[in-house]
Every structure is written in structure tokens, then in C-alpha cells.
Specification:
With 208 residues, the chain is of the alpha/beta class. The protein has helices spanning 2-37, 44-60, 89-97, 116-122, 133-148, 174-182, 194-197; strands at 80-83, 102-107, 126-128, 152-155, 186-189. It has a 5-stranded parallel β-sheet with strand order 3-2-4-1-5, covered by helices on one side. The longest helix is centred in the N-terminal third of the chain and has 36 residues, at 2-37.
Length: 208
């Protein structure tokens, strides 16, 4: 039974990676055009387009997104979205689930990935080199500037994906300082089951 389960997960992961690569390939011309037209500025067209493809990707991956809200989010108000970080799937969930324009803070290594890193830089998302104090200060100032300009921000204050059983690990205080300095309200997000569907320690994607 375990062999059958592992075989299915491997085949499903191959399917998911094929879908992700195919979607990225067919979107390259449009995304390139968007970078030339809109650049790093705030644009709901780009956000809506990416949200559509993130939702479609999750559908083809067999992952159903269930959103439970405690309060209504004002579409005209910028927020700082703070979330736990259990999986690379978290980015897809944030893009698909947050229905307003937002900038992301991501680790510097992601911004070096082919295609994904290029477009992340072109659309003005912020990278951070966690090991460098100077780089962290620069990222903080960039995020503060974005928050004061009226754009929403998505941050995982844990700073990394940790391979443990905790739903939430120790958080850094930068995101909270930005919220205070820019007087931007915070929306707390709990992502449940993402780490089980896309474990952080191996490339294995499961439907669910």
C-alpha cells in the first residue's frame, strides 16, 4: 500500500511540475509585455492576471482552496498580510486568495531562479538576504516605502520554512515595525495543510 501511495505521489508531482512549467511557458510573452507596460508600479490588472493563473494552477494540481474569514477585508484599504510559512505552496495560496494588489517579501535565492526571479524583480517585489544585516535594513526601508505609498504587502515573519511540526515558529519583528511606522493595519493569516500537500523538505506535491 505504501509503495502504491509513493508511486502515485511521484507521478502526481511530475504532472504538477509539467503543468507549472507549461503555464509559465505560455505566459512568458504576456508577463514580459506587462513588465514593459506597467513595470514595478501598483497595477490591479497584473495582480488579477496572476491571481487567475494561480487559481488555475491549484485546480490542475488537485488542490482546493478553502478560505475562512473572521472579518470582511476592505478592498480600498492597504494591509500588511502576515502569514505562517509551511511550504512553497504558500505563495500560490497568497496570490490566489488575497483579492487585492500586494507586494511580496522573499528570500534572495528565489530572485535568482530562472524566469520566476526575473519577473519578481521586474514587478517590484522585495528580496532579502537574511544573513546580511545591511541587506535586511535595505529590505526594511523598501518595504516601509511601499507601505507608505498605499500598497499592500505579504510577509512571512518567521523568515523561512522550518522543517518541524510547529504551525508557527519564532517571528521577526520587522513586519510589525513596518505596520506601526506606516500606520497600516495588519491581517493575520493561518495557512493550514499547505506543508502536508507540498512538504518543505522535498519536491512532493499531493492533491487535497
Amino acid at each position: 500500500m505504501k509503495f502504491i501511495k509513493n508511486t502515485f505521489e511521484i507521478l502526481w508531482t511530475i504532472w504538477c511540475l509539467f503543468i507549472a512549467g507549461f503555464f509559465l511557458l505560455i505566459n512568458l510573452p504576456v508577463l514580459t509585455l506587462f513588465t514593459l507596460i506597467f513595470g514595478e508600479g501598483k497595477n490591479n490588472i497584473v495582480d488579477g492576471y496572476l491571481r487567475f493563473w494561480a487559481k488555475l494552477t491549484l485546480i490542475f494540481w488537485g488542490i482546493r482552496l478553502v478560505i475562512i474569514r473572521d472579518k470582511k477585508i476592505d478592498s480600498n484599504t492597504p494591509y500588511i498580510y502576515l502569514s505562517n510559512h509551511r511550504s512553497y505552496l504558500d505563495v500560490f495560496i497568497a496570490v490566489a486568495g488575497i483579492k487585492k494588489y500586494k507586494k511580496f517579501l522573499g528570500k534572495a535565492e528565489v530572485f535568482q531562479w530562472p524566469y520566476i526571479g526575473y519577473f519578481a524583480r521586474k514587478f517590484g517585489h522585495i528580496s532579502v538576504q537574511r544573513e546580511s544585516e545591511q541587506a535586511r535594513k535595505e529590505s526594511y526601508q523598501n518595504l516601509l516605502k511601499i507601505a507608505k505609498s498605499g500598497s499592500s504587502i505579504f510577509i512571512c515573519p518567521e523568515g523561512a520554512v522550518y522543517m518541524n511540526d510547529k504551525l508557527l515558529n519564532e517571528m521577526r519583528n520587522g513586519a510589525f515595525r513596518i505596520a506601526i511606522e506606516s500606520k497600516t493595519p495588519v491581517v493575520a493569516i493561518s495557512m493550514i495543510n499547505a506543508g502536508e500537500l507540498f512538504p518543505p523538505h522535498k519536491i512532493r506535491i499531493r492533491p487535497g
